[in-house]
Design a protein that fits this description.
By secondary structure, the protein is α+β, with helices and mostly antiparallel strands. The protein contains nine helices and 14 strands. The chain folds into two domains: 214 residues, 3-Layer(aba) Sandwich (Rossmann fold); 144 residues, no CATH class. A hairpin with a 7-residue loop joins β10 and β11. The longest helix has 17 residues.
Length: 393
């Protein structure tokens, strides 16, 4: 997106293959074992995004139990003491200590006055660790900012919150100005306004608009893509999208309509001895099957997408628009990897490698490219306009 090439160190085989297919130079390795000398004197910036599984709400969160050990590892590595083997033996989750690994690189690079800038990302619970990094980096002459940013504030159709660290030797480190808000904000004397958060319908080209649109078959959405689940049994959707089949209960009929900014499905259910009663179903995305799962309508951004072993639990589901709506709802439909990638702001034709589960894993653990572009552009000297929608093209 920004026209800059990097060198990636990555453990996952399929993530490496995807990066190679996308033209990115990648070394498949364990970052904890890779030597430091190849980077000395050659590194301008360091991007670190340690695995989040040990800390994420989607996992067992043993990283929180291991947190004192990780803090100790960071403190030791900052002094050039390598106590990782001893500390790793005490960790409940072996991935926890990878959050301290960037300090091994930073300490070695700092001996050469490098890198010029640093950008790091993790789940919000890692923010105290980023603050420890910040305190150390400031003693080395860096300007540092740490905080939690919402990806939706930067044009990502997902309210993904992440702990960010930005550091620089040459400029004041600060978060990029947000370009979007939950509610649109007009321009003012204090600066440009902000657009409304990007909805899932907009990102997927499903055409949730402010006016009704006709029911169409797959491929006819006004946003350039298919309507989410058009009329009929959904067999019209291509097999490549792995949609499955909705089996309506006769004499039920359905029609898709996007009304008032919400994409809906109208179902007329006929009960014996009663007049036909229309039921309007609203499509939502549920991000997992837990009781506290985030459920969002199509005219909103998605909740945080995470997959792994829960890849099959992120589903589109229909909800009635009134509490007394009769009739049988369509069955839930699993999100596709292509849809998940678009909701992370990857291009529609991004060359994902691997099977469905492997792709879901890559999508769920990635930093949304549009957010990353906003974070990195100032440090790379690349102009990035607030309305630069070419990033998602």
């Amino acid at each position: 997106m920004l026209g800059i090439r990097d060198v990636g160190l990555e453990w996952d085989e399929w993530a490496c293959k995807t990066r190679a297919a996308a033209g990115q130079l990648t070394i498949r390795t364990d970052v904890a074992a890779y030597p430091l000398w190849p980077f000395l004197g050659r590194t301008t910036g360091l991007i670190a995004s340690p695995p989040c599984q040990a800390w994420s709400m989607a996992g067992k969160r043993l990283g929180l139990v291991d947190q004192p050990l990780v803090h100790q590892a960071v403190a030791d590595l900052a002094q050039g003491r390598d106590t990782r083997e001893k500390l790793l033996a005490a960790c409940r989750d072996e991935r926890s200590l990878l959050a301290a690994e960037p300090m091994r690189y930073l300490h070695a690079l700092n001996q050469r006055g490098q890198p010029e800038w640093v950008a790091m990302e993790e789940v919000p619970d890692v923010l105290p660790l980023w603050r420890q990094y910040a305190a150390i980096l400031r003693t080395w002459g860096y300007s540092v900012w740490t905080g939690v940013l919402n990806a939706a504030d930067y044009g990502v159709p997902q309210t993904r919150r992440r702990a960010i660290l930005l550091a620089s030797r040459t400029r004041t480190a600060e978060p990029p100005p947000p370009t979007h808000a939950k509610l649109a904000e007009p321009d003012s004397l204090f600066g440009p306004g902000r657009a409304r958060w990007v909805s899932m319908a907009e990102a997927l080209g499903w055409g949730a608009t402010d006016r009704p649109v006709p029911t169409v078959c797959a491929g006819g959405g006004p946003g350039g893509g298919p309507e989410p689940f058009p009329s009929g049994s959904r067999k019209t959707l291509s097999n490549a999208r792995d949609r499955g089949t909705w089996k309506p209960h006769p004499p039920t009929t359905s029609a898709a309509a996007a009304t008032g900014g919400r994409t809906q499905k109208t179902i007329t259910s006929q009960h014996p001895g009663a007049q036909a009663t229309p039921t309007v179903w609203r499509w939502t995305l549920r991000n997992n099957n837990q009781a506290n799962a985030t459920v969002r309508t199509l005219d909103e951004p998605a909740g945080t997408l995470f997959f792994g072993h829960r890849a099959n639990e992120c589903v589109w589901q229909a909800e009635p628009t009134t509490a007394t709506s009769p009739g049988a709802a369509p069955d839930p439909i699993r999100i596709t990897a292509a849809e998940a990638g678009l909701l992370q702001t990857f291009p529609a034709d991004y060359p994902w490698q691997g099977n469905k589960g492997q792709i879901f894993s890559q999508v769920g653990t990635a930093v949304p490219p549009r957010l990353a572009a906003h974070l990195l552009a100032p440090h790379l000297g690349v102009p990035l306009r607030p309305d630069d929608f070419t990033l998602a093209a």
